[in-house]
Structures are given as C-alpha cells and as structure tokens.
Design goal:
single chain, 431 residues, mainly alpha, Growth Hormone, Chain: A, 2 domains, 16 helices, 0% strand, globular, disordered C terminus
C-alpha cells in the first residue's frame, strides 16, 4: 500500500478527511474536468443535432446511443476493472473518449453524416461503461477506508458543481464561436488534462482476483454478490426507483412554459436548482462526522424526495417550485453518498469493479428510463399527474424497502460490516 493508506494513516484522527491525500486530490481534479467536459458536450451535441435536423427523435437517439453500450458492456467492464490495472485501464478509456470527441469536432466542422455522429457517441458510451466502475474502484487505492465516506461526498460535490458550470460554459462557448465544433475541441483538451493527472497519480496495489474469479462465470459475480448483500441491494433499489419514479426534471420545460409561466430564463433557474441543492448538501456533509444511523437517514431522505416531488408537481408558484427542486437535489445527494460509500466499503477489493459496473448499469439506465416513464405518464395523465404519481410511488417504494429489508432500518455506521456473501468469503480465504 502507499503511504496514503498505511496503518499510521488509519489511526490519525485527521485520516477521515479525504482532501489530506494528494493522490485523491489528483483523482478529484480529474473527475471534475471529466464531468465538466461531459456537461459541455451534452449541451453542444443537443444544440447541434437539433439545429441540423429539427427532430425530437434525433435528440432521443443521443441518450440511446450512449446507453446501449452500457447495457451490453457492463459485465466485461466490471471484470476488466478487477482483472487489469485500473489506473492504466482508466487512461485507455479516456484516450478513447478524446478520439471520439475529436471525431465529433471533425464531423461538426464538415457537417458530417448523422450516422457517424452516432458512431462517435456509441464509442463515447463504451468508454464510459468502463471508466465509471474503474474510477469508482480506484478511490479505494488512494485512501484509507476511514476516509471513504468523506471522499464520496467530495466526489459528489465536484460532480454536481460541474453539472452547474458545464452547461453554462457550453452554451456560452456555442454563442462565442457560433457553433458546437470548438466546444468539442475544448472538451477533448479537458479529457487530455485528466489523462495527465491520472499518469501523475500514485495508487496502491489492488487485490488480484482468485483463480476462480478469472473464469467466465466471474463476469456475473457482481450480480450474485449484490443479490446476497442485502443492505447494498436495498440501497441500490431505493436509488433506482427514486430516479425511475421521481422524474420531475424531465418535464421542466412543460412546467416552465405552461404551468409556472416563467419562460426560458426561469427554465434555466429551475434546471440548475437541483444541482445547486446537491452542491450545498455535499459541502455540508463533507464537514460533518460520518453517519451514525445511515439506514434510517437514507430511508427518510428518499421519502423526503418523494414528498418534495409531490409538492413540486402541485405548485403553481415559481419560488416554491425552485425550493422543491433544490430540496430534491439535496436529498438525492444524501442517497448518492450513502449508496456509493456502502458499495465501496462493503465490497471486497477484488470485486469492486464488477459490483461498481452493476451499480452503474442501474444508475445509467434508470436516468434514461425514468425520463421515458415520466413522458409516457404525462401524455396520459398530464404533467402534474405524472409528477405527483411519481412522488407517491417513491414513498411507496421506501415503505416496501423498509419492510422487505429490515437490515436497512437497522443500519448504523456505513463501515459496520454485515456477514459477507459466500463468494466474498471464498475469495478472501483463497488469497
């Protein structure tokens, strides 16, 4: 292990503060650059394709092109994150991202074929399917376990900050350059900067997979592990259904124009509200002690998410709607920190890539499917009915999770261990 994760660091009372560790700071800076560039790309791609085609279907294809590789590759991606050197695997995925982004720039300048644009997006999605579980698992190689919760909080904070600043920067650059081409070029430069930071990062050794974990059946061990680790399964289920059912953000253009009557300027504020709430909550959590009753806190946070969704759906006053979206972001951040920390702490190192890949599949697909679900229900019941029904559905899911998984109701600190699944016990015994 590196000095960052030495036994001395574990007994240091300041060891739980993740920002003390230089290698984590390098990872954190790289994560910010990556997310900032991705947010600029999202704005640029949507703007350019809609300007070229005036087709909502083409816009829908953007998300689909990036989700399909995630669905197809999550098992081999998790296996690779456990089998290969994570640092260099992440470097390779970011280089693929740079090439795909430069391809988008070239196609933008030359008004290239739409099919080639989608090909670049598929490559981008494929790289992301590998980079998410790999980057998440690498956190454990630059920090002692006592700092995991604080580290996840800071990662969430900078990612949410990028979600606020990235779209604004992308829109500004499109206006300055008169098109999306140079936004792609600048984004590729930011991805390259992340590669440079990764190469400077010193990481501790990762636990090699056992002989049985090198077989084909090891691809699905992440699914088996989650199925047998009840508290992780409960946390991911809560997060999955909260996103699926609480899709208020998807319908914001309708609320801004037809219900709140605030126009595009008000829509911009509403769009930023949840990210602002998440940033504020992340900064608050980073300064407080570790959770002592993480399970009840998570259940209350997701239930509060449902209540805030209902109030937003019924509101006809802009500032109340803004406040509820702010609360949605803040409460969702609590869920993100607890879930991600549980995945990191409760998963053996030799399985972190595969479990992280399964988690990323649930998160990635739930965002896309949640937007689709909200749109379909809004078509049938109207936007208010869709949002309010989703809020009640979220509260119902919280009640069912608390009933089906009593482990979640009794979960105390995130580092308190429960009995490990058989796969993990066999893996550790073989090491």
């Amino acid at each position: 292990m590196t000095d960052d994760t030495s036994p001395t660091a574990r007994t240091d009372p300041r060891a739980s503060k993740a920002l003390r560790y230089p290698n984590f700071l390098l990872l954190l800076a790289g994560s910010f650059l990556n997310n900032f560039a991705q947010q600029m790309l999202t704005i640029a791609i949507g703007w350019e394709l809609y300007n070229r085609t005036r087709s909502a279907l083409v816009l829908g294809g953007i998300g689909l092109a990036q989700v399909i590789p995630l669905i197809l590759l999550f098992l081999p991606a998790g296996y690779a994150a456990d089998r290969l050197n994570r640092k260099y695997l992440l470097v390779v995925t970011q280089i693929i991202t740079v090439v795909a982004t430069l391809g988008l720039a070239l196609l933008s300048f030359q008004q290239g074929a739409l099919l080639l644009v989608y090909a670049c997006l598929v490559a981008f999605g494929a790289a992301e399917s590998f980079s998410f579980p790999t980057g998440s698992a690498m956190v454990a190689q630059v920090l002692p376990e006592v700092a995991f919760e604080n580290a996840i909080t800071w990662r969430s904070s900078v990612n949410q900050l990028a979600s606020v600043l990235g779209p604004a920067a992308g829109g500004l650059l499109i206006g300055v350059f008169g098109g999306a081409g140079w936004v792609y070029v600048i984004s590729s430069a930011l991805f390259l900067m992340q590669v440079a930071l990764l190469l400077l990062t010193k990481v501790g050794p990762q636990t090699a997979p056992t002989a049985s974990a090198r077989k084909l059946g090891a691809l699905v061990e992440g699914l088996r592990f989650l199925g047998q680790t009840q508290v992780l399964l409960a946390a991911i289920t809560l997060d999955l259904f909260a996103v699926l059912l609480g899709g208020a953000v998807t319908l914001l253009p309708i609320f801004a124009r037809d219900i709140l009557h605030v126009g595009p300027f008000g829509l911009g504020w509403l769009q930023a509200a949840s990210s602002l709430g998440a940033v504020c909550m992340a900064l608050f959590l980073a300064q407080r002690p570790a959770f002592k009753r993480a399970g009840p806190t998570l259940l209350l946070a997701v239930a509060g998410f449902g209540v805030a969704t209902i109030i937003f759906g019924l509101s006809q006053w802009f500032w109340l709607s803004f406040a509820m979206l702010f609360a949605l972001g803040a409460l969702d951040n609590i869920s993100v920190v607890i879930r991600a920390t549980l995945v990191l702490v409760r998963t053996p190192d030799q399985m972190r890539g595969r479990v992280g890949a399964v988690s990323s599949l649930f998160i990635g697909t739930s965002n896309q499917l949640g937007g689709f679900e909200s749109g379909v229900v809004a078509q049938l019941l109207g936007p208010v009915g869709s949002v309010v029904l989703g809020g009640f559905g979220t509260i119902l899911v919280v009640a069912l999770v608390a009933l089906i998984w009593p482990e979640m109701r009794h979960l105390g600190g995130l580092r308190e261990q429960e009995p490990q699944p058989m796969q993990a016990q066999q893996a550790q015994a073989a090491d």
